[in-house]
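Final report, closing paragraph on structural work. Over the funding period we assembled a curated collection of sequence-structure pairs, and we close with a single example.
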Amino acid sequence: MTIKDTPEEWEIRGTRTPFTGNKTSVRTDDVVMPDGTVVHRDYQVHPGSVAVLALDDADRVLVLRQYRHPVRHKLWEIPAGLLDVPGENPLHAAQRELYEEAHVKAEDWRVLTDVYTTPGGCDEAVRIFLARGLSEAEGARFEVEHEEADMELARVPAEELVRGVLAGDLHNNCLAVGVLALVTARAGDGLDALRPAQAPWPARPFEA
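Its predicted structure, as stored:
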């Protein structure tokens, strides 16, 4: 058996959108089950996201602390953001987020991993990049607002973040997946064997 996720789409008898928000919406599909019954499935429709595990020469990860209202927590996270337009090149989006949230640029970019964050209730797909060769970005800093105006930035050793994830102290999805993927890649074929930054992404197709 090949352990690999495969695309599949069951018959949909009807669909409606009971809620449309600024960036996302909620959709209800009437889906035909294998036994022929039809059930309602509600889920959030999401444009997709990118996240950046930015690793400096001292093996520290650039993290930020931000308030997340749905969970009523300030979470330590890695830089991340939405794909602004359908078909947007995810590398360009990741470079933008690293600049806007941390005023940092990177010389070496690779795909660390691709995930569906909550596939039981949302179609969000996230591509997590590894960025190395960090330096301060040129020009003026991006003007932040709302929750981002209260952000804290830090550089934390990767091994400390791994301990925090396993201890249950760090909960952000992209941070947890990112740092665990980092140590796994190192223990395997090495970071230079990771996929190139422009690797295909079937969940959110784009033109390189």
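The chain has a mean pLDDT of 95. DSSP finds three helices and eleven strands in the chain. We thank the funder for supporting this effort.
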